[in-house]
Amino acid sequence: MSAPPPIRVLLADDHTLVRRGVRLILDGEPDLTVVAEAGDGAEAVAAARTTEVDLAVLDVAMPRTTGLQAARELSRRLPGLRILILTMYDNEQYFFEALKAGACGYVLKSVADRDLVEACRAAVRDEPFIYPGAERALVRSYLDRLHRGDGLPQRPITEREEEILKLVAEGHTSKEIGELLFISAKTVERHRANLLQKLGMRDRLELTRYAIRAGLIEP
């Protein structure tokens, strides 16, 4: 009986060295093969639409479009695609956002050589993967929150506002943002004003600090 074809992986990370390292790990396994690479979330979405892939491995913090934003888009466009989030951040908020975005696993870069292959196989079996050690902390935190009557953390801004906030923080003009998101510069300005009002902020500098805290851009 012949072996099943290898799992086709799309790998997205804006650091070439990280991509190279992760690719070595995955391509070293007989049942995994990297068929496409991307340097940001927008490239990842484009690559998934033109290449047959079974699994997308997405870094959280990337230029233009984050891994979480790309995961939301890919979940909408390609519901059969499995998604893993790869991150430097051991952050519970990111974990819940990743699950909400349609990801089925969350792998820390610091232990990718140990966990990533297992996470890829679990994802394709449609099983959730949480990096070892996280389960207890997440469950305890969730129970504490329920005990206080808080529920899950809420997103203070919409997905579109988040896209615009990220691009503003990266220094793009309203015209450039409009071209990237296929909306008018006037619409961008309106979203930007809403963001400032919603978040109680005055200028781009404060928005940038917020974007760094929210993990939309790297400091």
Fold blueprint:
Blueprint: E1 7-12, H1 16-27, E2 32-38, H2 41-50, E3 55-59, H3 67-77, E4 82-87, H4 92-100, E5 105-108, H5 112-124, E6 129-130, H6 134-148, H7 159-169, H8 174-181, H9 185-199, H10 204-213
Parallel strand pairs: 1-2, 1-3, 3-4, 4-5, 5-6
Number of structural domains: 2
Residue share in β-strands:
5-15%
The helix fraction, in percent, is 40-55%
CATH homologous superfamily identity of the largest domain: Response regulator
Distance between the termini: 52 Å
So what's the overall shape?
globular
- What is the element string, with H for helices and E for strands? EHEHEHEHEHEHHHHH
The biggest beta sheet reads: 6 strands, parallel
Number of helices: 10
Arithmetic mean pLDDT: 86
Query: Biggest sheet, strands in spatial order?
Result: 2-1-3-4-5-6
Look at the helices and sheets and give the structural class.
Answer: alpha/beta
Radius of gyration: 18 Å
What CATH first level of the largest domain would be assigned? Alpha Beta
Overall CATH architecture of the largest domain: 3-Layer(aba) Sandwich
Instruction: Compute the number of strand runs.
Output: 6
* Poorly predicted tracts of residues: none
Instruction: Find the CATH topology of the largest domain.
Output: Rossmann fold
Pfam families: GerE, Response_reg
Domain HTH luxR-type: 150-215
InterPro entries: CheY-like_superfamily, NreC/VraR/RcsB-like_REC, Sig_transdc_resp-reg_C-effctor, Sig_transdc_resp-reg_receiver, Tscrpt_reg_LuxR_C, WalR-like
Keywords: DNA-binding, Phosphoprotein, Transcription, Transcription regulation
